[in-house]
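In line with agreed milestones, the collection of sequences with tokenised folds has grown. One record among many is set out beneath this paragraph:
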Amino acid sequence: MILHLLDYAGVAVFAISGALAAGRKSLDVLGVVVIALVTATGGGTIRDILLDRNPVFWIGEPTYVVVIVLAALATIPYTRWRRPPLQSLQIADALGLAFFSIAGAQVALGAGHPGLIAVIMATITGAFGGLLRDVLCNEIPMILRKGQLYAVAVIVGASVYVLLLDLGISRWPATLTGMLAVAAIRFAAIVWNWSLPVYSLPDAADRSPD
């Protein structure tokens, strides 16, 4: 029951991040709801298609859609009453990433897949909704931006979750630890601008002749 509530919390927070992104692009109310729906369901939908799960999670349980729409609509008056901080989108996205990515790992493990596939599905579940949101909002996807340990946070957190289960730790403590690992890495990247090493090649015009 608690894990199911965390799943609802994940889609709600992702919906809020989608609504905030739509607001920064000055979309209308329908646009806000659409972006929120894509953000909150995109990663899980891709995961379910890849794992051949029928029906897709939000079709099998339409309550997810209700939670997403309510969260998106509630964001509109709240942000008109109180201006959100500049990093509110990143903070909301980090929380959604922590909640939802571990749920993706749980789905894969529950379907009998090994730990590596669970980590991959966690990454897809957590990161691809935000990727679709950023593409629709004409932004460079957060997962690809320099200084954003985004997918890395999911990979580490999901790996911690799978490892703890393999060590015999019960599901609930392993879930909390995995979520905390994802959130901690994302918040650290936001606050201290942590990033992976950048790979770049000089342009042909910049190369000196042999």
Summary: The helical segments are 2-24, 29-50, 57-60, 63-81, 88-110, 115-136, 151-166, 171-192. The first helix runs from residue 2 to 24. The chain has eight helices and no strands.
